[in-house]
Each structure stands twice: as structure tokens, then as C-alpha cells.
Design goal:
The protein contains seven helices and 13 strands. The chain has 313 residues and is of the alpha+beta class. Strands 5, 6, 7, 8 and 9 form a five-stranded antiparallel sheet that branches. The chain has a four-stranded antiparallel sheet with strand order 11-12-10-13. The protein has a two-stranded antiparallel ribbon with strand order 1-2. The chain is globular, with a radius of gyration of 19 Å.
Length: 313
């Protein structure tokens, strides 16, 4: 293994040990390549993670090795790393990474983090999310064309509500759409609003969208609108986060106009930096406005004969 190197990031220094360790065998990209990728999209990844409790998916031997789900901040953090306390129903708590600077992300890479999974709330209001997440999750026999069809209806319904949605690829076969919301409601209300929205999509696309709770019971040729991603302590891969697969695919912000032709597999740590340099962060304006959930909560009340969303696992 090569000797450790030091990266100067503003007024901070991050030491990268084992910089030539191959993390992504499809093209031979290394731990140092991963750090350089996150530096190249620094403004974007910080915007996605800023001041949110953040779970780390670590791969100490590269993405073909053991995967570690890390809630608590790893030991050995420099004194400039911020944390936020989160409490769990068990009565236990954890201090999780709270990103405010791109050096925090690179330190995460030094700790073998590939994926960053933030909460949809921030440290000043941990129990009141400011982000509603619409997760379009295709079942095994559904293709990305099916996801495109559902995304078109999601955009249609959001437009009818006067709400701006911000899409991104998931890093897998699905799509995520984020909406900034007023941090007035706690997790159960946000999840209930997301359930009401998902039911409206199901009504408009019968046979293509299936909200059956257990995955094994869903039609394998359908798309699940996963409202449960808005439950407390549920996290999904951040915008610009790399996915822990050999091809180093990236969860990438896209424009609505790109959805009909986009190929999510082409967004990798080898291609996204050039895209970012050309067009910047497509999610940069997300914080310009926050929307109310009241119309969706009214939908939930209106459907008084509707199934209540199952309790989150």
C-alpha cells in the first residue's frame, strides 16, 4: 500500500491512509479517487447533507468487502467535526455526523465511508422534517420505463398542488423526488401526508403502482411509492452520494426534462464531476421555498375510508 497523503481542504487537513486501495473494481478506482470525486462535487454533497444527522455506510476493504452501517460517529474524529444527538425509542442515543464543510465528507472517506445517508430533518429541529421524500422503487419485473411513467404522474400531481419537486437518480433502479417542507410537523404527520400522496398516484396508475406493504405480496411488475422513507430514522442515499457497488454509480440530481431519456447507470464517479462542472448543482435552489403539507393532510382526512398506512418496521 502507498503511504498516506494529506489533502489540504480550505483551512483543514485530512489524512488519507491507504490511498491506492481499490474500492471499485469495475474500473479500478481507489480510495483516493473517491476522495477526489467528493471534492469535485463538494458544494453539492454539502448542500445535500448540511446539518442533518448522517448515517455512514463504510466499506473498510472496498465495496466487495464487508459493509458497516455506522450511526455513531467513528472514533478519532478531529475537533472540527460537528455532531448531532439523536434519540431512539429504546432509550438509547447516538451522536451522528453533522456535515457543515466538505472536509467533513472527506474525513468520512478516510473512515472508509462510501455512502452518506442523511435524515430528512436538521439538527435545529431533529423531530420536525424539512424534507419530504418520494421514493419510486421498482419491483423486480418492472423496468426503468415504468419508473418514468410514474415520475410523470408524480410531476403532474405536484404541479396541481403548486409544489416544486427536485428529482434525482437513486443510485439503483429507482428515482427519488425531494420537496422542501415547512418544519412544522413531526415524522408521523409527514409520513401520513406522503401516504396520501402515494395513494393518489396509485389511483391514477392502477395496475402499475402497488402500495401493498410487504414486498413479497406486491405484484412484481409494479412500482412501489415508498412513503415509509419519511418515517423517523429512515434514511436514503444523499444526492451526490456514491453507491457501494463495483461500478461506483452516483445518486445524481437531474432535471424533470431529462427523465424520458436518462440512463442512471451512466452517472458514476468517473462522469459526474464533469457534469457538475458544466451545470452545477441542480438542487441548489431547493431551500428557496418551503411548502405546506396541509393540502396532503386534508387528502388523508378526506379519505376517511382509506387504509391507514401500516406502522413502520
Amino acid at each position: 500500500m502507498a503511504e498516506a497523503i494529506e489533502l489540504e481542504i480550505g483551512d483543514r487537513t485530512v489524512r488519507i491512509s491507504n490511498p491506492d486501495r481499490v474500492y471499485f473494481p469495475a474500473r479500478g478506482e481507489t480510495k483516493l479517487d473517491l476522495a477526489r470525486y467528493y471534492l469535485a462535487v463538494g458544494d453539492g454533497i454539502v448542500n445535500a447533507l448540511r446539518e442533518r444527522p448522517c448515517m455512514l455506510h463504510r466499506f473498510p476493504e472496498g465495496v466487495t468487502g464487508e459493509k458497516v452501517h455506522q450511526k455513531r460517529l467513528p472514533r478519532g474524529a478531529p475537533d472540527w467535526i460537528d455532531t448531532v444527538r439523536v434519540d431512539f425509542p429504546s432509550g438509547r442515543h447516538a451522536y451522528e455526523l453533522c456535515v457543515t464543510h466538505v472536509a467533513d465528507v472527506i474525513w468520512g472517506v478516510q473512515m472508509s465511508t462510501v455512502e452518506f445517508h442523511p435524515w430528512n430533518s436538521r439538527r435545529r429541529h431533529v423531530e420536525q422534517p424539512d424534507e419530504w421524500r418520494i421514493d419510486l422503487d421498482p419491483m423486480p419485473e418492472a423496468g426503468f420505463d415504468d419508473v418514468r411513467r410514474v415520475a410523470a404522474v408524480v410531476e403532474e400531481v405536484l404541479t396541481e398542488l403548486g409544489i416544486t419537486g427536485w428529482p434525482k437518480t437513486s443510485g439503483g433502479n429507482g428515482l427519488h423526488i425531494y420537496v422542501r417542507i415547512e418544519p412544522r410537523w413531526e415524522f408521523p404527520a409527514v409520513r401520513r401526508a406522503a401516504w396520501a400522496f402515494a395513494r393518489e398516484i396509485e389511483r391514477r396508475l392502477p395496475g402499475l403502482v402497488d402500495l401493498t406493504w410487504w414486498r413479497k405480496d406486491r405484484d412484481p411488475a409494479t412500482v412501489f411509492v415508498d412513503y415509509n422513507q419519511n418515517a423517523r430514522d429512515h434514511t436514503i442515499r444523499a444526492a451526490y452520494s456514491v453507491r457501494g457497488v463495483p461500478e461506483a454509480v452516483v445518486s445524481t440530481p437531474i432535471a424533470w426534462s431529462e427523465i424520458p431519456d436518462v440512463d442512471p447507470r451512466k452517472f458514476t464517479i468517473a462522469t459526474v464531476p464533469d457534469r457538475f462542472a458544466r451545470i452545477g448543482d441542480l438542487h441548489a435552489g431547493m431551500d428557496d421555498v418551503a411548502f405546506s403539507l396541509e393540502p396532503l393532510l386534508e387528502w388523508a382526512d378526506r379519505d376517511d375510508d382509506a387504509r391507514e398506512p401500516p406502522e413502520p418496521a
